[in-house]
Amino acid sequence: MLNPQVTAAAGLRARPPAGLTEPSALLAFVRQAMEDANDAECGPALPLPVVVDVDAGGVPARLYATQVDAPVFVYVHGGGWCYGSIETVDRACRRIADRSGCAVLSVGYRLAPEHVFPAALDDVETVLAYVRKSGAELGVDPSRLAIGGDSAGGQLATVAARRQRDAGTPLDLQVLIYPAIDPMTASESYDEVGSYGLDRASMKVAWETYAPDPMTRFTPDVAPLAAADLAGLPPTLIITAEYDALRDEGADYADALLSAGVPVVHTRYLGVNHGFARKLAVIDDARVATDQVASYLRAALRF
Predict the structure, then answer these.
(1) Model-level pTM?
(2) Which of the residues 85, 100, 106, 151 is marked catalytic?
(3) What would the pLDDT profile of 93-103 be if each residue is shown by its tens digit?
């Protein structure tokens, strides 16, 4: 059964007026609507000792911390590679930093269609390199480094984690919240629950906008399951949602990681849909999921 809190939350964000059809104007409207609904969906900003915007090697980022010399969790926001920002995940990042004891570095990567693949991935890797090089100057411990993200951010996070493995600089942990995994949108969950906020048509547009060259969508830097070998990826927490069209591909990725010998915790939250985890003010399970992320990070990295 769909949690009634999900239905209530759906009415908090402004919808485009019927006559707004010009693509760039529609894109700008949706981006602004996400940020305008932030307080209503996510609640007030939790005060922390450190909340500071930083230039992470040319990529805008925001650091959240409660103590010095803390492990680092690089967070990559969702939004179909076209929407979302540091602001739209601000409340979740604050809560994770507060409850995990880890520093959280939120990445303001370049968005499509203005900047298509591999711009966003390049930005994430630039931030990881910045943390390794300049973490001590930030007052954090770059020797304990994890990555995570939601939806499109989950895709970027796990691709970056595999590339870090291949470069001989493996990460310690990854957290993937309803990650986008399959550019072909072939999962049955699109047919079963594609009417609960995210459908196949909109997800196809997102993939095609991010990676307009069809051939790139068959490469592991876009499609994580296209990688020849997933062994050696970091221990992984995957969160999926019962009423999310991305539910099955997230589960398939969890299974593939397990088959490759990667330690995986996969939790499916019942009664909720795509995007629930950042809506801390209106969906109870958002707070539970965010605290699960914090607990997972604290248990693995606070040593």
Answers:
(1) 0.98
(2) 151
(3) 999 999 999 99
